[in-house]
Amino acid sequence: MNKLFIASNNAHKIEEIRDILLRNNIELELVCPKDFNCSEEPVEDGETFEENAYIKARFYHDLYNLPTIADDSGICIDYLGGRPGIHSARFLPEMSYPEKCAYIVDIMKDIKNRGAQFVDCMCFIDKDSNVYYYKGVNEGEIAEKVAGTKGFGYDPIFLIPEYNQTEAELGEEYKNEYSHRAKALKKWIIDAKDKL
Asked: Are 81 and 95 in contact, with CB atoms under 8 Å apart?
């Protein structure tokens, strides 16, 4: 079975990628830095999702010489001028994600424009060191309250208007079919099956 290196130790993200691949009949052995007892990490100092995804993919591809996929993702909130964006993981670093979500809902309690996007950019470097990018965007709104327990990160405040539920309420079935990461990964699946 072909190996695919996932440039992340985020167990939620890896499981999500595994589920999406299986739903699309793609069987690969997924490996990540933990599998190699790797404690080295790249410095994500890019200014875009694409740059940060490339930095991670290139770092691990050069380290292990395996086809590597890395993504950089985040929530972009209209009211905050597109922030936290690429800084989503490092936004309000003193707070846990539940605290961050509660804080965002609180500062937006009187705001009418609640538009937001989840953005995911994947960078794939194949066995021959060719570089490819795939982007997925999910449009939504910031919910008026934190809701749901089936997600992680900002899922409990990312409202999908047509369902009137957050991604954390809709859970895996929704996310693995329609999330920003699922959209990017499906583009990769169509394009990259023969590049492993």
From this structure: no
Query: What are the tens digits of pLDDT across the range 80-138?
Result: 999 999 999 899 999 999 999 999 999 999 999 999 999 999 999 998 999 999 999 99
Write down the residue that tokens 């933990």 correspond to.
34
Rounded to two decimals, the pTM is 0.90
Q: Which of 127, 171, 190 is nearest to 15 (CA)?
A: 171
Give the total number of structural domains in the chain. Answer: 1
Q: Which of 35, 71, 72, 120 is catalytic?
A: 72
Domain coverage including residue 18:
3-195
Radius of gyration of the chain (CA): 17
Q: Is 72 a catalytic residue?
A: yes
CATH at 96: 3.90.950.10
pLDDT at 2: 87
